[in-house]
Amino acid sequence: MIFELNEIIKKAFGYDGDWQVTMNENPEFGDYSTNAAFLIAKKNSGSSMEIAEELASKINEAKNNLIEKTEAKKPGFVNLWISKEVFGDEVGKILKEKEKYGKRKTDNFRKINIEFISANPTGPITMGNARGA
Q1: 27-31, 32-36, 38-42, 62-66 — which is least confidently predicted?
Q2: What distance in Å separates the CA atoms of residue 127 and residue 73, rounded to the nearest whole number?
Q3: In the chain, which end has fewer C-beta atoms inside a 10 angstrom radius, N or C?
Q4: Angle at the Cα of 75 (from 59 to 83), degrees rounded to 5?
Q5: What is the spatial distance between Cα 127 and Cα 117, in angstroms, rounded to a whole number?
Q6: C-beta neighbour count of 128 within 10 angstroms
Q7: pLDDT for 104-131, tens place per residue?
Q8: CA–CA dist 87, 107 (Å, integer)
């Protein structure tokens, strides 16, 4: 769902940014929230609140079935409420797909190796730490 919300924001402003769409813990602020207005304002030297209001308006005008309501909140967040129809459809998919829900449908699997390096927390970072990382 976050991917779809990012696409809606991208279409509203005509470019892809490095903003984030995150789930809200407090339902008072919607289901999701984005910091897109802050980053767009920084890039264009504008007011984050004005851009948040413009973004909320453009999303509302798009009339998509995913978003029920948007709201711009100070200092420049845009809160998004997902439509009950979409939530219902998603629950139906979860019940139907069970353990397969959310898994990528591709035959092109690759093994990857993820490593974690921790520098000495009590000493300075050295070239040896950097090389090891």
Answers
A1: 62-66
A2: 45
A3: C
A4: 30
A5: 13
A6: 10
A7: 766 677 777 777 666 666 767 777 766 6
A8: 29
Q: Is the pLDDT at 15 greater than 90, yes or no?
A: no
Residue 3 to residue 89: CA distance in whole angstroms: 17
Token pair of 1 as six digits: 């769902």
State pLDDT tens for residues 45-77.
Answer: 788 899 889 888 888 887 678 888 899 999 989
Element (H, E) at 45: none
Give me the residue label for tokens 């984030």.
Answer: 20
Check: pTM over 0.70? Answer yes or no.
no
Separation between Cα atoms, residue 41 and residue 51, nearest integer Å: 7
Which pair of tokens denotes residue 52?
């948040």
For 48, residues 6+ apart whose C-beta sits below 8 A from its C-beta are 37, 38, 40, 41, 42, 75, 76
**Structure tokens belonging to residue 131:** 């090389």
